[in-house]
Structures are given as structure tokens and as C-alpha cells.
Amino acid sequence: MTSPCLRLEGVSRRFGGLKAVDNVTLSVDAGARHAVIGPNGAGKTTLFNVISGELPPSSGTIGLNGTDITKLKAHQRAALGIARTFQITRLFPELTVSENVLLACAALDRRKFAMYRPLSAYSEFSERAATLLAQFGLADIAGERARHISYGARRRLDVALALAGRPRLLLLDEPMAGLSTPERIGMRGLLEQLDPSIAVLLIEHDMDVAFSFASRVTVLHQGRVLADGTRNEISANDLVQQAYLGGLAHSE
């Protein structure tokens, strides 16, 4: 039996007396499309921070492709194949779109330390960057500084940067947040075309997006796993419907 791409066992994260993530056990298979849903304050982004290494877990273990990464730093986890996006994009605003992508392509390569050669001198980086720019509809604005491009383009660039290092696990933290309807449709199309070998763990408030994208869904409530199963099982779960789906529908 093969190991899952990502495996969390009893993971918790405390902030003083508050348990933002409380004894979470979770598996994400290689190539899976898995969504994490729940209201604000459920612990979703904190969970992502723990998985990616932005925050250490207070207890529990985290495994990536059979390797215990619980004590590894964020850059060490990135080197092993974890990439993520953030609710607020983290770009280099004074660099061009193309330069942002080139840097991301080089970030996990040892040759990034050869500062006497420009990144553009490495053809594989340039080719990889050009592919990503085209894939995410950014080629026409490749020469613009990141701070000058539209919000929707920044969101697409954020995903492109996360993919630059060819990750094995991609954490997407609300990629649809703040997008217009046409931009949301475009982003959904891009997500559906992601390499099927990459495991994707998605945080998304839009239930239509979460359930159409993910075949498996985990529901968090006050840091705990309320339910975990296929999208059909979660849709039919009375507790989930009462606590989340129905409540969200009434509040929107």
C-alpha cells in the first residue's frame, strides 16, 4: 500500500490557551483534489501555515510522501515539494511579472547562488517561465511591474509562482477571493487544468467551486475535523448541512 502524499496525525496548534487547530488527522493522496471548508475562524489558514512550515505544530506529526517533515522549516518543506498561495498575494511589486516568475523558477535550484550570471542566462528557467506566463494568461503583461497589474492578474501570478518549482503538493488558500465573476470563471478553468500528478489541497468559501473542484472534502469547525469524506458524503451529511452549508446559504 502506497503512502499518501500528505498525512497529518493528531496535529494541533495552540496560541496560548486557544487551540486554533485541534487534533487534526488528514490524508491527501498523490494527485488528489481535496478541499478544506468551514467558516471564518475554523482554523483553515492556520492549518495551511502548519503544513507549509510557516508555523510549527504544537503537537502531532506531518508526513510528506512517507517522510516525517514535522520539524522541518518552511524552506526545507518547499525543497521537498510543498508550495502554496496566500489569501494576500506575496509578490515582488517592483519586479516585472516575468522577473517574479523567473525568480520562482530558480528558487529551488542550487544555481540561484551563481549571482555573476543573470537568471535569463539559464535557458531552462526562461523556458519554464515562458510556459507559466502563457498558461496563466500573463504573457502580454510579462514586462509590467507586478504592482501595476490588475488584482485578478496578481491572483493568477500567485498561482503561477507556486507552480514554478514543480511541487508535489500545492496548497491553495482561497484563490477565488476578491475576483469578479469572469475572473472566477477563468481561475476555475486554470485550476481544472493543473497537472493531475500534483496533489492539491484547497481552501475555498465558494461551495460551488469547492465541490466542483474537489473529489474529497474536509470540514473544519473550531479547529477540529467535523467531517471528512467524498463530496457526495459531505453534501449528504446532515450535521454539515445544518452547521455550514445551510448557514452559509442563509448568510449570503
Could you outline the blueprint of secondary structure elements for this entry?
Elements: E1 6-15, E2 18-28, E3 33-37, H1 44-52, E4 59-64, E5 67-68, H2 74-79, E6 82-84, H3 97-106, H4 123-135, H5 151-163, E7 169-173, H6 181-192, E8 199-203, H7 207-213, E9 216-221, E10 224-230, H8 231-235, H9 238-251
Parallel strand pairs: 3-8, 3-9, 6-7, 7-8
Antiparallel strand pairs: 1-2, 1-4, 4-5, 9-10
What does this structure look like?
- This protein has 9 helices and 10 strands.
- The chain has 252 residues and is an alpha/beta fold.
- The longest helix is centred in the last third of the chain and has 14 residues, at 238-251.
Strand content: 15-25%
The shape, in one word, is globular
Using the CA coordinates, give the radius of gyration: 18 Å
DSSP E strands, number:
10
CA distance, first residue to last residue: 43 Å
Order of helices and strands: EEEHEEHEHHHEHEHEEHH
Low-pLDDT residue intervals, each spanning 5 or more residues: 248-252
Put simply, the count of helices is 9
Spatial ordering of strands, largest sheet: 6-7-8-3-9-10
Question: What are its keywords?
Answer:
252 residues; alpha/beta; 6-stranded mixed sheet; 24% strand; disordered C terminus
